[in-house]
Amino acid sequence: GQVLTYNGSAWVNATPSGGSGGSGLYPLNPPPSLSSWTWLNQGTATGQDVQGGVSLRTRAAAWSCLMQAVPSPPWTVSAALLPVLVGGYAQTGIVLSSTDSGRLLTFVCSRGNGGMIEVGQWHSPTTFSSAPRQMTGIGVATPTWLQLTDDGAEHRMCISADGQYWEEVYRQSRTAWLNPTSIGWGVNVADGGQLVLSTLVSWNVSSS
To answer: What percent of the chain has pLDDT over 70?
Structure first.
């Protein structure tokens, strides 16, 4: 696994002992503080600023998210999360939402099916519709790197082992499920009563 160290402003790859190491991971981009986000369906979820990031906690069978206005395309959002997922379908990841329809599009890591990456379509924070993409049996990485791109025509979802080399896992028309107005990240214990702890340690929004 990767060993991260906090340098006072960002989490970076620790230099291996007994050698010169290398450049390692690029320094992570610390996310905005908790007060800079807008809650979507907070419910009983809690959030807290922590060293190097923002942490969310929930036991509810519903999406609780921290959101911000979606940029004008083209854009790319890259995120690194430290997840603790307890429960059959505990989830955390990137979330798109629409104020027009109330729908969500989620790109997440989940404990379900032996650990998986999932693209989910939700009618609301509590009502699931479908999962057009599931990569099952792959475990849950720490950190989990997720990237979502909007090129003006399509949404493209990618995963990474290091935050540098990205592999596309799914794409669809940007309005196939919703007309996005907000983007952020969130937590959900889909089967309820268990626990999700998730800390966002990097959040980077770029024009692309």
So the answer is: 87
For β-strands 144-150 and 75-86, DSSP reports them as antiparallel
Q: Are 199 and 54 in contact (CB under 8 A)?
A: yes
Tokens of residue 181, six digits = 């107005």
What's the CA gap between 50 and 34, in Å, rounded?
A: 9
Q: Which DSSP category does 54 fall into? A: E
DSSP string, 23-43: --SPPP-PPPPGGGSEEES-T
Cβ neighbours, 10 Å, residue 27: 13
Q: Which residue, 161, 157, 106, 112, is CA-closest to 128?
A: 106
User: What SS3 state is found at 114?
Assistant: helix
Beta strand 166-173 with 4-6: parallel, antiparallel or unpaired?
unpaired
Mean pLDDT of 187-195: 87
State pTM to two decimals.
Answer: 0.87
